[in-house]
Every structure is written in C-alpha cells, then in structure tokens.
Amino acid sequence: IDLATFAAGLPKAELHLHIEGSLEPEQMFAFARRNAVAIPYPDVEAVRAAYAFNNLQDFLDIYYAGADVLRTEADFRELAAAYFARCAADHVVHTEIFFDPQTHTARGIPIGTVIEGLLAGMADAQAEHGISSSLILCFLRHLDEADAFATLEAARPWLDRIAGVGLDSSEQGHPPSKFERVFAAAAEFGLKRVAHAGEEGPPAYVTEALDLLKVDRLDHGNRSLEDPLLVARLARSGMTLTVCPLSNLKLCVVPDIDAHPIDRMLRLGLRATINSDDPAYFGGYVNDNYSAVAASGRLTRDDFVTLARNSFLGSFLPDADVARHL
Ligand code: ES4
Ligand code: ZN
C-alpha cells in the first residue's frame, strides 16, 4: 500500500480543530434555512468560491460571518456529529475540540447553548463511534482581557467538563502577554492551557506563550523555526506542536505544500502532530492533511507512525489511556 493509505489507516488523535471551522457550506445553508438567517451567498458553490484567503484575517472575517447560522443547541450537536462522522472515517479515535464562545455570546447565544450542544454531540460520538473527546474553550485574542475574564466566569458551571483553555483569532498585535492573568486564573481552576503562537506572529510570541501563559501545548508554532535557541528549548521540553499543513497552505503561511516544514520539525526533534484546524475552510480533514504531506514525499512510514504516536502523547488523555493507544 502507498504512504497516504498507510497513514490514513493509523489510529490517531486530533489536537487542533475549531468546531466552528468544520461547518461545511451545505450545513451552513441547512442551518440558515431552518433558523431563518440570511447568508450573503446564492449557493454552495459561491460559498466555496469565497474561500480564497491571502492571510489569517481574510479567513477569520469569513469564518466569523459563517458562524452566524449557528443558533440552537441542536445546531451545535449536529455540527459536532458531522465532524465526528469524518473522524470515524479517518481513524481519529480521540479529539480535543476548540470552540469560540465569544463568537456566539456576542450574538446573544447563551454559552450554555453552545456547551450543552457540543457535549451532547460528544456523548453521541462516544456511543456511536467509540470516539473519545474533550473541549478546549478558546479566548478570542482580538478582544480585550475583560471580555476573556467574563467568558471564563460565564463558563464556570461547565468547567468540570472542559479540559482546558486556548487562545486564537488575529495573532499579530495581540501577544500572549495580553492574557497572562486570564491564563493564570484558568490554571487555578485546574484547566490545561494551549495557545496559537507563531502562525503569523514572531518567535517572541511563542516564548511569551511558554513563559507567561505556561502552555501545555503550542498551536501551529511554525515561526519557532526562525529561532534555533527556541527550537532547542521546545525539543528539550518535549513540547507538542499542533501543526496544520493545509491551513498553512490556505492562509499563505507556506507558499506551497512542498515548502511545508513538517519534515524539518521532525528532524529537529520537535514533537509535531498533524491536524486539520478548520477543515471546511481549508480543504480537508485529518487524513487529507496526512495525504497532502505524504504526497510531498519527504516523510517515511516511520515518520507517520511518529506523527500518530505524537498525537496521543500530546493529548490531555490520562496516562493509562495514552498508553492504551500507543
Ligand atoms: C484559526 Cl487557523 C486559525 N488561527 C487563529 N485563529 C483561528 N480561529 C480559527 N482558526
Ligand atoms: Zn487554529
């Protein structure tokens, strides 16, 4: 069997997936119709045609607009269900799901509607597919610290069902330092911490995520490669990087897939993983990402075994469950 087929069949975890980014155009139209929400596109083809981005902000503008069709607990449950069906097809047996409460609460959707809908979808997936999952509440970094604190406070009743907090949205100009106190509060609540860093932002933002936010995992981290001392630190500490090849391609973080540094990351001893980020917007789910890098021909079978192992080692599963998956 060829390399992509081999990689596709490996059991794996997904550690970087924005559930709002799994909203496929067909589902967008279905939710818009039943919720009587207007969408600024005539049809599914027009939506797909709009998915051409020059950078992160181009994408975010369209992604936040798309999320407007999500209104009810059933919407979030079904959104999750569609994503889990893709996980099952891709041999993703565990997933740690990002969600952006502020995108919804700003529109008057209660945070409980979002969380209860997602938790119901997660319970369905465990029962129907045997897929385990957890939630990571992300703060939108373009909003202020007070808004992030209010969001953490609003989530208090559900914190026993949330694994951790994350930091996403527009990176440039919104350094991790802006959220140092929010992350400290989250740590006090016993939550894990992750942050997008070094996607578009400089290596210094990665260092801030480590030193100020005390992250357990780094999302993207690409630009760490510009700083050899930072690379050495990440490698030495066994820090997991949740790398997203098709996302990097679509958001012009790399000029083409053959220029993607996933092979360099592995050779440098970094604990890299492969993830889909926003699969409905970036052209594919986990196995599409594995296939894309397989096709670029710089990774071996052993590398794919390492990537899949890293996805469990970097997960927030209890040690006994990690061991069961290795
Ligand atoms: C995101 Cl790729 C990416 N980067 C930052 N924030 C995000 N939110 C959803 N996808
Ligand atoms: Zn992301």
From TrEMBL:
<feature type="binding site">
    <location>
        <position position="16"/>
    </location>
    <ligand>
        <name>Zn(2+)</name>
    </ligand>
</feature>
<feature type="binding site">
    <location>
        <position position="196"/>
    </location>
    <ligand>
        <name>Zn(2+)</name>
    </ligand>
</feature>
<feature type="domain" description="Adenosine deaminase">
    <location>
        <begin position="11"/>
        <end position="326"/>
    </location>
</feature>
<dbReference type="GO" id="GO:0016787">
    <property type="term" value="F:hydrolase activity"/>
</dbReference>
<feature type="binding site">
    <location>
        <position position="277"/>
    </location>
    <ligand>
        <name>Zn(2+)</name>
    </ligand>
</feature>
<protein>
    <recommendedName>
        <fullName>Adenine deaminase</fullName>
        <ecNumber>3.5.4.2</ecNumber>
    </recommendedName>
</protein>
<feature type="active site" description="Proton donor">
    <location>
        <position position="199"/>
    </location>
</feature>
<keyword id="KW-0546">Nucleotide metabolism</keyword>
<dbReference type="Pfam" id="PF00962">
    <property type="entry name" value="A_deaminase"/>
</dbReference>
<dbReference type="InterPro" id="IPR006330">
    <property type="entry name" value="Ado/ade_deaminase"/>
</dbReference>
<dbReference type="InterPro" id="IPR001365">
    <property type="entry name" value="A_deaminase_dom"/>
</dbReference>
<keyword id="KW-0862">Zinc</keyword>
<feature type="binding site">
    <location>
        <position position="278"/>
    </location>
    <ligand>
        <name>substrate</name>
    </ligand>
</feature>
<comment type="similarity">
    <text>Belongs to the metallo-dependent hydrolases superfamily. Adenosine and AMP deaminases family. Adenine deaminase type 2 subfamily.</text>
</comment>
<feature type="binding site">
    <location>
        <position position="18"/>
    </location>
    <ligand>
        <name>Zn(2+)</name>
    </ligand>
</feature>
<dbReference type="InterPro" id="IPR028892">
    <property type="entry name" value="ADE"/>
</dbReference>
<feature type="site" description="Important for catalytic activity">
    <location>
        <position position="220"/>
    </location>
</feature>
<keyword id="KW-0378">Hydrolase</keyword>
<keyword id="KW-0479">Metal-binding</keyword>
<dbReference type="InterPro" id="IPR032466">
    <property type="entry name" value="Metal_Hydrolase"/>
</dbReference>
<comment type="function">
    <text>Catalyzes the hydrolytic deamination of adenine to hypoxanthine. Plays an important role in the purine salvage pathway and in nitrogen catabolism.</text>
</comment>
